[in-house]
Amino acid sequence: MSTSYASPGSPFAGEPPSVILWLTQDQEGSLMGHILVLSGAGRYGDGIHDFDATSEAVSQILTERGHQVEVRRSEPEALDHLAGADLLIVNTGGGDPEEGWDYIPEWSRAHNEILEHHEAGKPVLGLHTACNTFCDWDLWPSILGGKWVLGVSGHPERSYAVFEPMPEAADHPILRGVEQVVVYDERYSDLDVNPLATPLLFHETGEEFHPMCWVMGNSVVYDGLGHSPRSYYSASRRQLLCNEVSWLLNWKRREAAAEGPAQVSPESTQPGR
């Protein structure tokens, strides 16, 4: 059984996949959504990261912003009602590399739920080890826009670090109010980033620049921060997370705007339309 940390009034509890959940707006016009956080455990846990704690930190931050958030541990049935979510946040790990990756039909079906969510244009946010998860699913790196490469990717020892906006992406809405991110965290390096992705933040090791956060298409963001709850103590890191979620929940508006002014209407920006 999947483990939930949501309140009894969770929008996901008992909902059939056909239920359409409508986005609402706060007083500033930002979209409030129903968010599912998939938290590392079992096949997609590891012995290094406390996914329960980091997922709870994410949930608390976004709940305080007005979103409805449910955290579910990464078991196949956790994604049974993904169709009812406005945003999927993937906070899972690479599992045990010694275990092997035998085919499990239940996980193949769960992966397909994520694929259908993505192909419908609905947003996905990958956090930290999301670049090294779902190792038994070949399509995941192409959805996320990059991956951790065993034997190549790595990181310096965890420390206070500064992550700067990419100069060409400084005006991106996700970076609004984020001049830099100063946080105690890991600095992922030498990730394999899809050339179609748009890097947003980077850090330096010596004379090398490493993307740490990027956008893939209209509805996917990867954010490499979040090793431990301590990462979320940083105000700039929390602002980045909230900006990412706000931008992702606006995917319908961007899609409608790209189709032309005649296509933009309040109804056209609602989920399920």
Structural overview:
The protein has 273 residues and is α/β, with parallel strands linked by helices. The protein has a domain at 24-147 and 212-269: Class I glutamine amidotransferase (GATase) domain (Rossmann fold, 3-Layer(aba) Sandwich), CATH 3.40.50.880. 21% of the residues lie in helices and 23% in strands. The strands form three sheets. A nine-stranded mixed beta sheet has the order 4-3-5-6-13-12-11-8-9, covered by helices on one side. Strands 1-2 form a two-stranded antiparallel sheet. The chain has a two-stranded antiparallel ribbon with strand order 7-10.
**How many runs of DSSP E, i.e. beta strands?**
13
As a whole number of angstroms, the C-alpha radius of gyration is: 18 Å
Q: What is the string of helix and strand elements?
A: EEEHEEHEHEEEEEEEHH
Strand content: 15-25%
Distance between the termini: 32 Å
List the strand order in the largest sheet. Answer: 4-3-5-6-13-12-11-8-9
- Which geometry do the CA atoms define? globular
- Outline the low-pLDDT stretches: 1-23, 263-273
How many helix segments? 5
Average pLDDT, all residues = 84
* Helical proportion, percent range: 10-25%
Kindly identify the CATH topology of the domain at 24-147 and 212-269: Rossmann fold
Task: Please write the CATH class name of the domain at 24-147 and 212-269.
Answer: Alpha Beta
Structural class: alpha/beta
